[in-house]
UniProtKB/TrEMBL annotation:
CDD domains on file: CE4_NodB_like_5s_6s
Intracellular or extracellular location(s): Secreted
Record domain NodB homology: where: 90-339
InterPro entries xref list: Glyco_hydro/deAcase_b/a-brl, NODB_dom, Polysacch_Deacetylase
Organism, scientific name: Pontibacter ummariensis
Keywords: Signal
A GO molecular-function annotation: hydrolase activity, acting on carbon-nitrogen (but not peptide) bonds
Assigned GO CC terms: extracellular region
Protein name, per record: Polysaccharide deacetylase
Length: 339
């Protein structure tokens, strides 16, 4: 399907979502949501300190929590999910990826509403106090006068490489110092901050590999090292081995799942936009490849949440039909991939 046509049908689905929700009873499910950096406000985004990514502000995050509490959602943590959820309720898990220091801004909101959240941490960034490469590419690219399109194309190219290759590329382009964070907005937590953060009763920590490794770009040994060493290093900081992992960019292989099982990681999460139904929580493989929605600060919050909660999407029906006719066809990936 052509991109413009697909976008138009998606917009129609977004418009129809409140009507669908008013007509068809929302199916009970376990929905998980992905956040990255949490910006103080829209003004902070204009400083170009880091890749704006989803552009979610603290205020928007608070509204997100209120919206779902009003819709009757129960907020859960990884241990809650592993203990077992009830089939007749709607559940939600908040997740933040990467380990940004700015994630501390979520704490007052978690406390205000007494809801837990899981933070997936790229541990070498914490230990080495090193900026995330996509932030380096954005910040330095902007300074060098690159357009947003050029920066995005470069980011998409780098997502097919290992962390070493990415660093070599960016260091050659901008120098080694470019990996020094420039503010509290773009820096990862320090190990001490992460230790203290992890002790908060509403905070749960998960594995996001050692070096934010996009795992299919690595050899089997590389995948093993990225996951196992992250478990060990995180345990040294937070005092326990995580039971969960968020695969960087949502990408994994069958071997990745084997390594996770061996390491006692029972819950794995991707960036495939879909609900998780109760049946999938009893299947070991499904539990290691859970779906997750992404919220965008550039779009209206209620429309996005209504759309994700809605169980009837015309675009999905058309895709199913299209795939049946042309089973070999691969859909073009979104131009902006999630890190
Ligand atoms: Zn990430």
């Amino acid at each position: 399907m052509k991109t413009a046509f697909r976008k138009a049908i998606h917009q129609l689905d977004v418009l129809l979502a409140p009507l669908v929700l008013a007509t068809l009873r929302e199916q009970n499910a376990f929905n998980t949501y992905l956040f990255h950096a949490l910006f103080k406000d829209r003004e902070e985004l204009k400083l170009h300190l880091c890749d704006p990514q989803q552009q979610v502000t603290v205020g928007m995050f608070r509204d997100f929590v209120i919206y779902h509490l009003e819709k009757g959602y129960t907020f859960v943590s990884v241990p809650d999910v592993l203990k077992g959820l009830e089939p007749d309720k709607k559940y939600l898990m908040i997740t933040f990826d990467d380990g940004y220091y700015n994630n501390h801004r979520a704490l007052p909101i978690l406390e205000e509403f007494q809801v837990p959240a899981t933070f997936f941490v790229s541990v070498n960034h914490v230990l080495q106090e090193k900026a995330f490469w996509w932030d380096v590419a954005y910040r330095e690219g902007k300074k060098a006068g690159k357009t947003d399109g050029e920066i995005l194309a470069e980011k998409n190219m780098l997502l097919s490489k290992t962390d070493d290759e990415v660093e070599r590329y960016l260091e050659a382009e901008y120098g080694e110092r470019a990996f020094q964070p420039v503010s509290d907005t773009d820096r990862p937590m320090t190990a001490d901050e992460l230790r203290k953060f992890s002790q908060h009763p509403l905070v749960h920590i998960g594995n996001h590999t050692c070096d934010h490794a996009v795992l299919p770009n690595y050899s089997e040994e590389g995948v093993e090292r990225q996951i196992v060493e992250a478990q060990v290093k995180l345990e040294r900081i937070i005092g326990y081995r995580p039971l969960s992992i968020a695969y960087p960019c949502g990408d994994y292989t069958n071997h990745t799942l084997e390594v996770c099982r061996r390491e006692g990681i029972a819950l794995g999460i991707t960036v495939h936009h879909a609900k998780n139904f109760y049946s999938s929580l009893h299947d070991r493989n499904s539990l290691l490849t859970l779906n997750r929605f992404t919220i965008w600060g550039t779009e209206e919050l209620k429309s996005q949440c209504d759309f994700y909660r809605s169980d009837y999407h015309i675009l999905e029906k058309m895709r199913n039909l299209y795939h049946r006719i042309r089973p070999q066809h691969q859909y073009q990936k979104n131009s902006q991939r999630i890190v």
